[in-house]
């Protein structure tokens, strides 16, 4: 087998072995163009190492990007006015395992064009992995939406190590100040984080195909929906799981004063109430809010409108060798800014955040516009989805890779010299 002489791979190996001096990790970042010419892209993910990158377009199409070629993977009829559309995509953890019930299965979250319901449905990919079989569609669940066209959220995901439970983020349904108080009403699914078992079925209807986990926090509570895992969300625009720890990060878009990031520890049984509409971030919601009520929790981080006006949640980076390793990366749709904070789950402030915007805008893939989403590949690689039509991958700046490699080689040479001297 030929030795790997790729400088990035060598630097990553050196980092993983602890061979890089601390100063050498202060590298800069670059961007690499993965796809362009997209129409209102909202999300990107790559479930199989070396496989295609899948990009969700708001108008109802999922694109597969492989070897620099972009093709249609699946098209769904949706209503896309306002904040409606094709909003979420999650690949079954058993997607690449022929022995799994989830083999080639993936889930989509979209707005029904006939009645604007939020619909979760599953499909199966064809053998090539570059197209899906429309006839494989199975509706999993649907829930009615408010008459407004905003606050539909749409993220879905699986907790690492758990192939049964699909988590689904829902917005409060829209309108100013959550007029029906949906986020605090445990009798409706809006303004929540849901958790369902996609490998079970508690319902006789052929159009409802999931089970309610018996350990969900509201199971057995009078008047409450058992699907609910957490409450008090306004418009959670992108959540994620830390692939190493299993902790959940939820970015929730504010109304007029605060943007926030919420956190659920991996060991939590759920039941968190993140406060909306009583609270906007860490303050009483102007005109309708008040103090923290029993059971409500403050966010892990908030920022005022001086930083941006619509938070976009990201990921705790776990790509080996990345200078962002262990950092939670997030952005803002309106301001286009991108930051990182410590990903250990401790409370943070923007004073502790690192602003990567200028560096990433100067990258090889060109300036970024509205940050619609981030994406994570099978190896933990980080993608940025620009609503203007492109997806880029975050990579080390080439000179920095060489700097890291040079530092690693210098340190290894020093260790050899000292070892040789000690032997004599």
Description:
- The strands form six sheets. The protein has an eight-stranded mixed β-sheet with strand order 1-26-25-24-2-3-4-5. A four-stranded antiparallel β-sheet has the order 6-7-8-9, with no helix packed on it.
- Strand 3 (53-57) and strand 4 (61-66) form a beta hairpin.
- The protein has helices at residues 7-16, 357-361, 398-423, and strands at residues 29-35, 41-46, 53-57, 61-66, 69-75, 86-91, 105-111, 118-125, 132-143, 156-158, 165-169, 193-197, 228-230, 236-241, 248-252, 258-264, 279-280, 283-284, 301-304, 311-316, 327-332, 338-342, 354-355, 371-377, 382-386, 390-396.
- It has two domains: 1-27 and 398-424, no CATH class; 30-396, TolB, C-terminal domain (Neuraminidase).
- The longest helix has 26 residues, at 398-423.
- The two termini are 35 Å apart.
- Helix 1 (7-16) crosses helix 3.
- It is mainly beta.
- Helix content is 10%, strand content 34%.
- Residues 1-26 form the signal peptide.
- This is PEP-CTERM sorting domain-containing protein.
- Residues 395-417 form the Ice-binding protein C-terminal domain.
- Residues 46-338 form the Glucose/Sorbosone dehydrogenase domain.
- Keywords: Signal.
């Amino acid at each position: 087998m030929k030795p790997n002489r790729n400088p990035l791979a060598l630097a990553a190996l050196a980092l993983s072995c602890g061979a890089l001096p601390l100063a050498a990790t202060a590298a800069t970042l670059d961007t690499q163009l993965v796809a362009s010419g997209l129409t209102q892209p909202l999300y990107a993910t790559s479930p199989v190492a070396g496989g295609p990158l899948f990009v969700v377009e708001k108008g109802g199409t999922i694109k597969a990007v492989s070897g620099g070629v972009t093709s249609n993977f699946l098209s769904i009829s949706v209503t896309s006015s306002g904040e409606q559309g094709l909003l979420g995509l999650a690949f079954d953890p058993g997607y690449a395992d022929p022995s799994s019930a989830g083999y080639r299965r993936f889930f989509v979250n979209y707005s029904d064009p006939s009645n604007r319901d939020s619909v979760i449905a599953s499909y199966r990919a064809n053998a090539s992995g570059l197209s899906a079989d429309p006839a494989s569609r199975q509706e999993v669940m649907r829930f009615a939406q408010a008459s407004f066209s905003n606050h539909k959220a749409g993220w879905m995901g699986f907790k690492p190590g758990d192939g049964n439970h699909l988590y689904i983020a829902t917005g409060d349904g829209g309108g100013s100040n959550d007029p029906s108080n949906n986020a605090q009403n445990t009798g409706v699914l809006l303004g929540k984080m849901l958790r369902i078992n996609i490998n079970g079925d508690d319902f006789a209807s052929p159009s409802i195909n999931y089970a309610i986990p018996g350990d969900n926090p509201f199971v057995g509570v009078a008047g409450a929906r058992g699907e609910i895992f957490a409450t008090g969300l306004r418009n959670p625009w992108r959540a994620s799981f830390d692939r190493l720890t299993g902790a959940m990060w939820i970015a929730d878009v504010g109304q007029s004063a605060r943007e926030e990031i919420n956190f659920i520890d991996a060991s939590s049984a759920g039941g968190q109430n993140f406060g909306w509409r009583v609270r906007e971030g860490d303050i009483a919601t102007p005109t309708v809010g008040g103090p923290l009520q029993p059971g409500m929790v403050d966010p892990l981080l908030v920022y005022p409108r001086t930083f941006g006006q619509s938070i976009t949640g990201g990921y705790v980076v776990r790509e080996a060798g990345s200078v962002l390793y262990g950092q939670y990366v997030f952005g803002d749709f309106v301001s286009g800014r991108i930051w990182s904070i410590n990903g250990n789950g401790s409370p943070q402030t923007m004073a502790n955040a690192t602003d990567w915007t200028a560096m990433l805008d100067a990258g090889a893939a060109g300036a970024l516009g509205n940050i619609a989403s981030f994406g994570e590949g099978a190896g933990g690689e980080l993608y940025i989805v620009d609503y203007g039509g492109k997806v880029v991958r975050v990579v080390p700046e080439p000179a920095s890779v060489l700097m890291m490699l040079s530092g690693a080689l210098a340190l290894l040479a020093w260790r050899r010299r000292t070892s040789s001297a000690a032997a004599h």
